[in-house]
Write a structure and sequence with these properties.
six-stranded mixed sheet; binds pyridoxal-5'-phosphate; binds zinc ion
């Protein structure tokens, strides 16, 4: 098993930390797994799909119980928009409430194989608490770099797990690349958004969807996209199912972004082959607010031409409301696909006969400030007048 560049196809040994191709600087990935069989006697996705990972055995001592999340059917959404079936893949059920835990687990398995004890990440949102939690569980030293303007609401959940939490003063967008340099110099494994083993972890989302739909695949999968790492992993999961003869096509994977920060969607609109950096990104969907996504070029060039869409903050907040009335509280970034549904149906990216899965990437409970306007809906009544509110 080797790493292979997603662009120029140069190969590298996997016994080292490598994040990007040293030739063309595009992302690298693990070669695709073939001759892999699903172990149908196992329930846990990492055991069931063990042959789709480069580990001799999966060390579950390092696990916090990631993955194996529910696929919840929402009939009123599919009937409202006029297509066959709609499901939410509820990643808020992960140990630190986002899909990031899947890739953090596979990165820790890799770090363990290489005997590396120093890890790190660059994150403003969900990756930081995820890496910090697995570091705590496994007694690793974790350098967590956050931006100086991170709100307290996001900082505190990281601080719960982390001993080395660092606010970085300066240009945050260059930190992804700075951390790669620092990691190389000091032997620290920076488990950033689209590193190869994190992308491997996201494959398990596709594997579970395949299992949960009883060995069928959906027609369309909607993915809120920032760095592009998760989308690449979901795509690779389906590719490997196909390569091993379990399915005969890959679902249409749709990249959904917030219009205040949509470098990949913009490039698609302008028929470009490379993304441009967004200068002043602004959106409520902070978990997908990456102005220059490291896997952006790859995502842009791997999907169908009609598989890119963006929605504005107003649409995102309405979608958040819509989901909450279905009993699911998602953070704004995770609501962008729901906000995109009307347009996707209108332009026929979603067809009436389609089964659609949307990835609910992270929990709303982490960022309750996004629903602060709800305060005005709360009813106040005296204890002796409770019957007055019941009609
Ligand atoms: C990280 C994250 C994303 C974006 O994933 P990428 O792999 O960076 O594209 C989307 N939603 C949530 C909640 C996230 O934490
Ligand atoms: Zn390359």
């Amino acid at each position: 098993m080797k790493y292979i560049c997603t662009c120029c196809k140069k190969k590298y040994n996997i016994d080292k930390i490598l994040i990007r191709c040293t030739e063309c600087f595009e992302p690298i990935e693990l070669q695709k797994f073939n001759n892999s069989k699903i172990n149908i006697t196992k329930d846990n996705v990492f055991e069931r799909y063990e042959e789709f990972f480069p580990f001799n055995n999966i060390n579950f001592n390092m696990s916090l119980g990631e993955g194996n999340t529910p696929l919840t059917k929402l009939n009123n959404i599919s009937s409202n928009y006029g297509f066959k079936e709609f499901y939410i893949k509820n990643e808020s059920m992960n140990p630190t409430w986002s899909f990031k835990d899947r890739g953090t687990f596979t990165c820790f398995l890799h770090a363990n194989n290489m005997n590396i004890k120093n890890v790190g990440t660059v994150s403003t949102g969900n990756m930081a608490p995820s890496v910090a939690a697995y570091a705590a569980k496994n007694n690793y030293n974790a350098y967590i770099f956050v931006s100086e303007d991170i709100p307290e609401e996001k900082l505190l959940p990281i601080s719960v797990y982390s001993k080395t939490l660092v606010k970085v003063i300066g240009n945050y967008s260059s930190l992804y690349y700075k951390s790669i340099e620092l990691g190389n110099e000091k032997g620290i494994y920076f488990m950033n958004s689209d590193v190869p083993f994190r992308v491997e972890g996201s494959k398990t989302i596709s594997f579970e969807i395949f299992d949960q739909l009883n060995d069928k695949i959906p027609d369309v999968v909607l993915v809120p996209t920032s760095s592009g790492g998760n989308l690449r992993g979901i795509y690779k999961g389906f590719e490997e199912l196909m390569l091993n003869g379990y399915i005969n096509k890959i679902p249409k994977i749709v990249c959904v972004q917030a219009s205040g920060c949509s470098p990949i969607v913009n490039a698609n609109k302008k028929n470009k082959k490379k993304i441009d950096k967004i200068e002043n990104p602004e959106t409520i969907a902070s978990a997908i607010k990456n102005p220059y996504p490291p896997s952006g070029n790859k995502v842009l060039n791997m999907l169908d031409d009609d598989s890119f869409i963006s929605v504005n903050d107003e649409e995102i907040l309405l979608a958040q409301n819509y989901l909450s009335y279905n009993g699911l509280f998602a953070q704004p970034a995770s609501c962008v696909p729901i906000a995109a549904l009307p347009k996707l149906v209108e332009r026929k990216t979603i067809k009436p006969s389609d089964t659609v899965v949307s990835i609910l990437t992270g929990a709303g409970i982490k960022y309750t400030s996004s629903v602060k306007n709800n305060i005005s809906n709360i009813i106040e009544v005296g204890i002796d007048n409770l019957n007055s509110i019941i009609d």
